[in-house]
Amino acid sequence: MNSRRFALSLALCLAFSPPAGALLKADEAAMAPVWKVSDADSTVFLAGSVHLLREKDLPIPAAFDRVYAEAEEIVFEIDMATMMRPETAAEMRELGSLPQGEQLSDRFNDATMTRLRSYLKDRGMPEDFFETYTPGMVFLLLSSFEASRVGAKPELGLEMTYFAKSVKDKKPSRGLETIAYQISRLNRFEPPQIEELINGTLDELPESEKTLDAITAAWKTGQATDLADVIGESETFSEELRDILLVQRNRNWIPEIEKALATDRDVMFLVGAAHLVGEESVVDLLREKGLEVTQLKEGER
């Protein structure tokens, strides 16, 4: 199944299809997509998230609830309290809009614009809906529309689930990045690069349901090596894309994790699972610094 471009578009940093080892042998212990690093008086949990889930993907692996219960603070990629503000949607539209007087059709070729207009028409939307958005924002919107079409919802994803729990439990939470920073990541690419990603996503729409099945199956088994291998094999997930969307951000997060470890509190970092596997992942970078980072088995904390 050549569906990695849709996997990337669906969740940006979860560009993988089902690994060959996704089905465990009877004598293998199931792993959780959660890692931990501890010192004498605190533990940092690194929990790999899938941002959007469907009803059939539930329940969330039990390891997440156990780690959440132990944590005294939750750290998300973005401050979820900010994401829930009514004015945030308008802020995101502004950040993702082209300068006054410019249009997407000025940046994409005619064939791509024809495909995008056809896509919108097929979904009962105005054919010029994308015209005022930046190429990067169009990619994000396309991803969101397709996720919704196959039943994936943010309210079922891990961020919304555990933010709601933290509010109810009066457990403090914060974010590692701002909305503006995250949107700026895709705006660093030239229009032809984003255009390639968009066309790849449109090519693979028939496989979208199957791809999401693969993503959730691979995530639930927690097979880190297999996930990293498949991400590395992606034709579209270039070194440049990987560096901007994953590696640079991973490096930015290391000091924040070290600060958390230096306290006497247990902290849960809930971030996209692709940030936690492979070379130059958060886990890899922490190990390079001499820290012992261990992956949890399902049923272990």
What do you see in this structure?
There is one protein chain. The protein is of the alpha/beta class. It has one domain. It has 13 helices and six strands. Strands 4-3-5-2-1-6 form a six-stranded mixed beta sheet, sandwiched between helices. It is globular and about 60 Å long. The chain starts with a helix and ends with a strand.
Topology:
Blueprint (H helix, E strand, L loop, with lengths): L3 H8 L19 E8 L4 E7 L12 H9 L2 E6 L1 H4 L4 H8 L14 H13 L12 H15 L8 H12 L3 E5 L1 H8 L4 H13 L4 H14 L2 H10 L5 H23 L5 E6 L9 H7 L4 E5 L4
Parallel strand pairs: 2-5, 3-4, 3-5
Antiparallel strand pairs: 1-2, 1-6
Shape: globular
Largest sheet: 6 strands, mixed
**What proportion strand?**
5-15%
Arithmetic mean pLDDT:
84
Tell me the domain tally: 1
Radius of gyration: 19 Å
Alpha-carbon distance between the two ends = 35 Å
- H/E order of the elements? HEEHEHHHHHEHHHHHEHE
Helix content: 40-55%
Q: How many DSSP-defined strands?
A: 6
Name the poorly predicted regions.
1-28
- What structural category do the secondary elements indicate? alpha/beta
DSSP helical segment count: 13
Kindly report the spatial arrangement of strands forming the biggest sheet. 4-3-5-2-1-6
